[in-house]
Design brief:
The complex is a heterodimer. By secondary structure, chain A is α+β, with helices and mostly antiparallel strands. Chain A is globular, with a radius of gyration of 22 Å. Chain A contains nine helices and 13 strands. In chain A, the strands form five sheets. Chain A has a five-stranded mixed sheet. A two-stranded antiparallel ribbon of chain A has the order 1-2. In chain A, a hairpin with a 5-residue loop joins strand 11 (251-253) and strand 12. The relative contact order of chain A is 0.18. Chain B is mainly alpha-helical. Chain B has helices at 12-22, 26-52, 67-78, 81-91, 98-122, 131-134, 141-161, 165-174, 180-189, 197-230, 242-268, 277-308, 314-321, 326-345, 363-382, 399-421, 423-451, 471-494, 500-512. In chain B, helix 5 crosses helix 11 (242-268), helix 7 runs antiparallel to helix 10 and helix 12 (277-308) packs parallel to helix 17 (423-451). The two termini of chain B are 16 Å apart. The relative contact order of chain B is 0.16. The chains are: A alpha+beta, B mainly alpha. The interface between A and B is large, with 64 and 53 residues.
Chain lengths: 310, 523
Amino acid sequence: MLSRRSFLRLVAVGTAAAAPLGGNRMFRRWRLGRGGAVPALVASPAVDRTLVQLTDVPTQGGDPTIAYAASPPESRGQGPAGRRWVMVIDLAKCDGCRECTRACQGMHFIPAGQEWLRVYELRDNEVAAPYWFPRPCMQCDNAPCVKVCPVSAAWKREDGIVMQDTSRCIGCRFCIAACPYGARSFNWTQPEETEAQQNLPYSDEWNQRHRKGTTEKCIFCPGLIKEGKLPACVSACPMGAVYFGDQVEDAVTNSQGETVRFSELIRQNAGYRFMEELGTEPRVYYLPPRKRLYPVPPDEPQPATTGVHP
Amino acid sequence: MIDRRRRPTFSLREQHLLDSLQATGPRYYALVGGLVAVIIWGLIAYGVQLRYGLGVTGLRDNFMWGVYITNFVFFIGVSHVGALMSAILRLTGAEWRRPITRMAEAITFASLLMGALMPFVDMGRPDRILNLFLHGRLQSPILWDIMSITTYLTGSTLFLYVPMIPDIALLRDHYGHGPAWRRRLYTILALGWRGTPGQKHHLETVMGVLAVLIIPVAISVHTVVSWIMAMTLRAGWNSTIFGPYFVSGALFSGAAAVITAMAAFRWAYHLEDYITVRHFKRMGYLVIALGVIYAYFTFNEYWTPLYKLAEHERGYLAAVFSGPYAPIFWFTQIGGLLIPVLLLTLPTISWVPRLRATPLLQPRPAVAAVTAALGLLVFVSLSGSPAAALGEVTTARTVLPWAFAATALWLFVALLPVFRERPIAAAVVASVLVNIGAWLKRFVIIVPTLQYPFLPIQRAPVGWAFYRPTWVEWSITAAALAGFALIYILFSKLFPIISIWETREEGTAQASAGGEVAHAPAP
């Protein structure tokens, strides 16, 4: 029989022995991000065309204790330090051509049935005019999908991108349930791949290989960003409606080569984030669909397809 | 102390209870064979799903969860009855529970196994199951689920096993004519039980501690299960009362499942002397009480958003109250809640006529009654339902649900006197209805919300905008139910389904107190 003392000793020894195996790893997930701030060389907001060294750029927005708690796979990174990617979509310029969606499909060889960037037809109320609403992944700072992922297959990089590792995802689809924007897609069957595609190396930054039973989504094309290019959807927009840039630099660029101050653009055009009330703190901003010079959706938008089944 | 030589045979009472371990007839083998066939069919369906991916189910991006998660919530819910029966009733000293506690605990064991299986069936990559342990994140409610369900499974297995030890020892000592593996099994499981006062004291202590510990664990399990939904922002799931709402529904469905099991074993093993009308009445009261609590939570859950009609809540509310999911929802409320509670109160209502022949069962009055009921239902639906404000009222969408409702209404009224005379039949019908309703209710909680996300479902490929489960999902669901039944039946063949020593204690206790001994002939 075990005495009380020997039992307690056994428990203590067992815990110590098990710690490096699993327990410790699990509890380390609770740690915060790399501090609350990062050093960066950024464009001066005061004087044009000068750079200033900032020692502590806040990793702003959201609840960093939750959003950053996910531990990315060891081989994957936190993204370039001191960057905060941001996207601005000018709904007044969007004419619903869906070039962005097509560019995205081509860039990532997206499987059939999925649209990582979906253009919705929305209408806010009965008297308002309908408008086109492109929806990429919002790359939330307080990302619900990152919170609920049981295996850190989704994680928040310090440059703001919510990444997805399909080599770790277990396919529970909790992230799809948690995402309020429907921005996540699931590979329900083995996606068909061309031979050229099969020869591509797997890289979560390019996300061109797809695996059965895993979740995927828009990731702001970090591979293209690394090469100094704009994400595929941004450069494909014929209207220049999509701006992309670094919030720390306070500059965003569109496909027409127009580079504008992010804060000015938002301030002067009443920029907003979609469903701010949810508290997800998206990194995608919208400019309201006012004074449109371009074709708009028909007065009666296509009804949301409900209950239609073959 | 049990002495092998001095008591070579069983008492009549023990012999009767132990007979069920041996009695196997063609009907038994047909049942087991049928269940195994269903399970094999389900395994084939799962093989298809493994081979081709979850695309063979009706699930798609908008409906990422469906029947599998419904099964999960249903089975985990039913499993709560073990904690209710053995812990709560034990702590409150409800002695009548003794002949049925083991049935309840076995339900817990079997349904927890099936429930815990469902999330793995639902996984897109079951081959990566180890990632949950290698890379598990404590922030994810899925990890909470794994922890609380494994704790509850361990606890309730102990709760099933520990009070069984004296009975296993009885089998070890007196089950000489069984096969050798059985005797070996009983010898190991009896843990050297001799029935000494010291051992009895330990057993009582362990049972007392377990009874206290299992209650918070059981409550945590279904609370965490409900958080799988309540921790998201989706309208319809984003609710603060999901925890207690689910726990109350769980206890309700579990208690009803015990009534079904009681009736089945009473009939199959001829346990009329042990499980009496008295037990059905008590269980009936329990189900009524739990049903009223569940109705209260359901009312709270729907009435508050219905009053406010916030923009994003409208979609699923309209769908549930008058839209495509209305027939299911109203069945769960009327067929799965109101009628069962009425059926269970029936034996105590004096004014229900005690008739043997019911006039409503004659052909002409029957047709007239169904027609009248159908007319009444359609009229009520046309004359403005409370959901009219939602703007999506589709009256008399199909005649079929209304005809079904009218027939059911007539059947209920026509059979009232019959049920009045036969309380056990009433209790069984009520409990089966409760469990059908419980499964459908979980479906109605999960699916309509997915039909109405914040951004409307647009540009969905054909067939992706509405959830319709496929044969694969139904096959696996049937296999899970069959697996539950099979585990339960095999358990009853391995161990006495009625606790022998506990009912013996009840008998002596009541006899000495001068109370009625309703359950058993004296040993």
